Amino acid sequence: MSKITIIGAGNVGASCADVLAKRNVTADIILMDIKEGLAEGKAMDIMQTATLADIFVRVTGVTGDYEVTANSEIIIITSGIPRKPGMTREELIGVNASIVKNVVENTLRHSPNAKLIIVSNPMDTMCYLANKISGLPRNRVIGLGGTLDGARFKYYLSRALDVNIKDIEANVIGGHGDTTMVPLASLATCKAVPVMHLLSKEQLDKVIAATKIGGATLTRLLGTSAWVAPGAAAAFMAEAILKDKKLIRACAVLLEGEYGESDLVIGVPIVLGKNGCERIVDFPINDEERAAFKASAAATRQVNQILYETGMI
Predict the structure, then answer these.
(1) Annotated catalytic residue: which of 42, 83, 176, 212?
(2) Would you call the peptide bond into 122 cis, given omega within 30 degrees of 0 as the criterion?
(3) If 272 and its partner were Cys, which of 139, 182, 240, 279 is the partner (CB 3.0–4.6 Å)?
(4) What span, in angstroms and rounded, lies between the C-alpha atoms of 183 and 204?
């Protein structure tokens, strides 16, 4: 049976494990944390819903034992401190970079063939770090980003249109940050009808603004980073890879000339399948969105520079 390891048993990691279990993804699920008892307790809590939620897979919690994670097909990294109110994702870099570096090195030592899904913030930069220190091909290191932001974009569009969210198709590219993400309004549709034909410019601008601060809004309301949707987004990505679903979603991957950028990890549409990122999809974005993506890329490069300045790379 396949194995999925989730590093970090905080809110996001535990939510991810819970979603994978409730969807009965055919894999052993390992939940690991450095805090004694945390992963074991959360795994036990999830498994005690088995008879209530028709769970037929196993979630195992472990404390700091990387040997248990050996031969994982997918490793989901959620480790690091969460955002506090008023804190940007970029402000987390100093603490989280050293944590992510340690986790990547230790997990790959036991699972050299694994695909990595990076959730830790600032996500694009942590994914760039994972690419650089792992030496893995780019298809095996994928960041959460646009999968979560796209889900939030669909949520706000469905509320503005007062329709079922399943009828919405929408994507967000660019950096996973409040000022760097690029909701693709020009390509968003409701039952194949462009939303630009269904909403006024003022309404659409409000939706875009709400999407871009979606994470910050939840941080303000909750007092910490959101966890249910991020955990579900990571689980969604892992399941798409494990089941070779060939789904198109925006995720953060290393670009090698695509969208006019190189040596940069940032959100773009990709095909998620058994190899991780099967390929990058070239969406026909308009000039305004292309300019916004360019600005997002420049801002993300600035944050990445901190990794070099601090000797992390």
Answers:
(1) 176
(2) yes
(3) 240
(4) 11
